[in-house]
Amino acid sequence: MDAFPSEPYSDLSDDEVFARIAAARAALGDDALVLGHHYQTEAVVRFADLKGDSYELSKKAAESHARLIVFCGVHFMAEAADILTRPEQTVVMPDLEAGCPMADMASRGELESAWVQLAELGNPDDLFLPVTYINSRAEVKAFCGLHGGLICTSANAGKALTWALQRRPKVFFLPDQHLGRNTALAQGIPPAEITLWDPVLPLGGNSLAVLRQARILLWKGHCHVHTRFSTAQVRQARQAHPEAKVVVHPECPQEVVAASDAAGSTGFIVRYVEAAPPGSTIVIGTEINLITRLARQYRDRTILPLVSSMCPNMYKNSPRDLLHVLENPGRVNVVRVADEIREPARLALQRMLDL
Ligand code: 13P
Ligand code: SF4
C-alpha cells in the first residue's frame, strides 16, 4: 500500500477526467444539483449548475429538491446546505478537507465562555444579539440560534445588523472582525461604540466600562486571503491606472475598504464587473480565481487583481475529486451535521433567509 495515497483517478488524463465528469453528471440528471462558489477554479466551476456567493448558494440549496447536492466550496458552506435541506437529501463535497481557517477561529466553547463573562454587565441574552457570519462552524451557528441571533453573509450583513439592533441594544458579531467593522461603520455606528473581543483575553481584552459603552463587539477573527490587501496597493493601482475603479470584498481591512470605490460580496463584485462599460478598468481585491475568470469572461474590460491572493482551501476541490463524488453519488464525502445542533443552527439560518 502507498505510504501517501495518491489523488483519486490520478492515472487518468485531464481530458478523460472532464469527459467522465460530464458523463457522470448527465447520468444523475435532476437527481443532483452541483453548486459552485465563485472562488472555485474554472476547471471545477464549469461543471456547476449554479454559481454564486455564499448567500445565493445557501438559498439555492434550501430551495432544491435534488437528492444529491454537490457543494463545490468550503466546509461551512456544505454544512449550511445540509442544515437547510431535508433529511432525504444528501450534501457532499469534492474534498472534505476544504475548510475555512476563519470559520475555525471561533469555537462553541469560546463563545459560551464569552457569554459567561458578559454576564457581569447583566443578562447577555437581554443585552447582546449574536450575529454570526456564515463562515462559521455549525455549532457556533446553533449557539446563535439558541440565543435569538441570526446568520449573515457579506451580501446581507447590513440588514442583519439593523435587524439585530432593533431587538437588543448591542450586537456580538463573529468571527470576522473586518466584515463586522465595515458593516457597522457603513450603518453609521461611531468607532467609539465598536470594540474588539479577543477570545483568549479576560473580558475579550476590554474593561467593563468599554463594554458598557460599546454597541458592537467584534470577534478577533480574520480571513488571511483578504487581510493581504493594503492601502499601499490601492494607491499603486490608482497611480498605474488613474481611470480604474477599485472594488474589494468586505473581509478586507477597513482602511482598504475606505480607499476603494466599492465593496461587496463576490456576487456583488461579479455584478459590478458585468455592469461596467466596455473599455473600463477594474482593480479587484478578492480571491484570484474569481478575478482570473472575470478577466477571461470580459475581454473588452481590463480586470486586474489588487495583488494575487489565493484561497488554498477553495483550491483543494480538484476536478478528480469532483469526479469521485459524482461517480459515487451519496456514498463518499458526505457532510452531515449532528442532529442536536441542526435545528438551532437552522433557526439562525432561516432568520437570515427571512430578512
Ligand atoms: P461571499 O459570500 O461573498 O461569496 O464570500 C465568501 C467567502 O468566503 C469570502 O471569503
Ligand atoms: Fe475562508 Fe477566506 Fe477562503 Fe473565504 S477566502 S473561504 S473566508 S479562508
How are the elements arranged and paired?
Elements: H1 14-28, E1 32-37, H2 42-45, E2 50-52, H3 54-63, E3 68-72, H4 75-84, E4 90-92, H5 108-118, H6 124-127, E5 128-133, H7 138-146, E6 150-152, H8 157-167, E7 170-174, H9 177-186, E8 194-197, H10 208-213, E9 216-219, H11 231-240, E10 245-248, H12 254-259, E11 262-263, H13 266-275, E12 281-285, H14 288-297, E13 302-305, H15 319-327, H16 339-353
Parallel strand pairs: 1-2, 1-3, 3-4, 5-6, 5-7, 7-9, 8-9, 10-11, 10-12, 12-13
Helix pairs in contact: 1-15, 3-4, 7-16
The structure holds 1,3-dihydroxyacetonephosphate and iron/sulfur cluster (SF4).
| Biggest sheet descriptor | 5 strands, parallel
Strand content bin? 15-25%
State the strand order across the main sheet.
6-5-7-9-8
Which descriptor suits the 3D outline? Answer: globular
Low-confidence stretches: none
At the fold tier of CATH, the topology name of the largest domain is Rossmann fold
Short description:
The protein has 355 residues and is α/β, with parallel strands linked by helices. It has helices at residues 14-28, 42-45, 54-63, 75-84, 108-118, 124-127, 138-146, 157-167, 177-186, 208-213, 231-240, 254-259, 266-275, 288-297, 319-327, 339-353; strands at residues 32-37, 50-52, 68-72, 90-92, 128-133, 150-152, 170-174, 194-197, 216-219, 245-248, 262-263, 281-285, 302-305. The protein has 3 domains: 7-99 and 314-337, 3-Layer(aba) Sandwich (Rossmann fold), CATH 3.40.50.10800; 103-222, 3-Layer(aba) Sandwich (Rossmann fold), CATH 3.40.50; 226-305, Rossmann fold, CATH 3.40.50.10800.
